[in-house]
User: What shape does this take?
Amino acid sequence: MRAVVSRVSTAAATVDDEVVGEIGVGLLSLVGVGRQDDVAAARALARKIHELRIFAGDEGQVSAADLGLPVLVVSQFTLYADTRKGRRPSWQDAAPGEVAEPLVDEVVAELRRRGATVATGRFGAGMRVSSVNEGPMTLLLEV
Assistant: This one.
């Protein structure tokens, strides 16, 4: 699994002019699922997102878990695009929707089990995702 994680001061996912997920200070996590991914990978990714030490604390870098910050999770199959050849991305490495959706749901569930407040986009919907990136700080995570 892959995630692009940004430290944000605000982030929102909108579908058809309706805000379906929104947070203030926290993490925006765009999550992609590959064909070989499973529940263990989803749980490991959630743990990595939650414990990623990219916030300033009194004694050094701390995580969203340490600070009790929320996470906005948005599914993004395009993270598995293969752009090495030509100008048209290939999606062959991305998991199909029926495989990917439960694994994105498992990332959300694991974050919640860990005590995180989680907002989400809507799987498979055309979304507008907005954010104010702090830092800027954006990282690619893979498990």
In short: The chain has a mean pLDDT of 96. The first strand starts at residue 2 and ends at 15. The radius of gyration is 15 Å. Strands lie at 2-15, 18-23, 26-32, 53-57, 60-63, 71-75, 118-120, 128-142.
